[in-house]
Amino acid sequence: xxxxxxxxxxxxxxxxxxxxxxxxxxxxxxxxxxxxxxxxxxxxxxxxxxxxxxxxxxxxxxxxxxxxxxxxxxxxxxxxxxxxxxxxxxxxxxxxxxxxxxxxxxxxxxxxxxxxxxxxxxxxxxxxxxxxxxxxxxxxxxxxxxxxxxxx
Length: 152
Ligand SMILES: [Zn+2]
Hints:
Blueprint lengths: L7 H8 L4 H13 L4 H5 L5 H8 L12 H16 L14 H6 L3 E8 L6 E8 L5 E9 L1 E8 L2
Antiparallel strand pairs: 1-2, 2-3, 3-4
Helix pairs in contact: 1-2, 2-5
The structure holds zinc ion.
C-alpha cells in the first residue's frame, strides 16, 4: 500500500472511533507509514489509548482476519518508539516494493519474471537507508503479497 493521505489527526480519530471499518482503514494507513519515522512518532503518545479503545472491537474479515492489520499497526508504532536498527526490518507481506521505491525508501535493482509470462517471480532491491539487499517474492493468494528475504 502507498503511504496514506490521511493526516495524523484523522488516523488517531479513526483508531479511537470504536468503528471496525475505520479502525481497519487506519491500521492500513499506519502500516503504510512504516518507513516514515516522523509520522509514526506522532502516533506514539496515543498508543496506550488506541490499544484500550480497540481491545474489544470485533474487526471481522474471513480470509485475512482484519485484526492482523491492527496487530501490525501496533507493531509498527512500537518499533519506532523503541527501535534500533533500520525500519526496513518491518517490511513484510503487505509491503509493495514498487510503492516503496516510488516513495524513495528502496531501489529495485532487478525484476525477474516467471518463465514465459508477465507474472513477476521476484524483485531484487536495496534499502536506501541501510543498504540491506532483499529478494522479494511476489505471490498471489486472494490478493498480492510479498515475501521479503534478506539477500546479503
Ligand atoms: Zn534498511
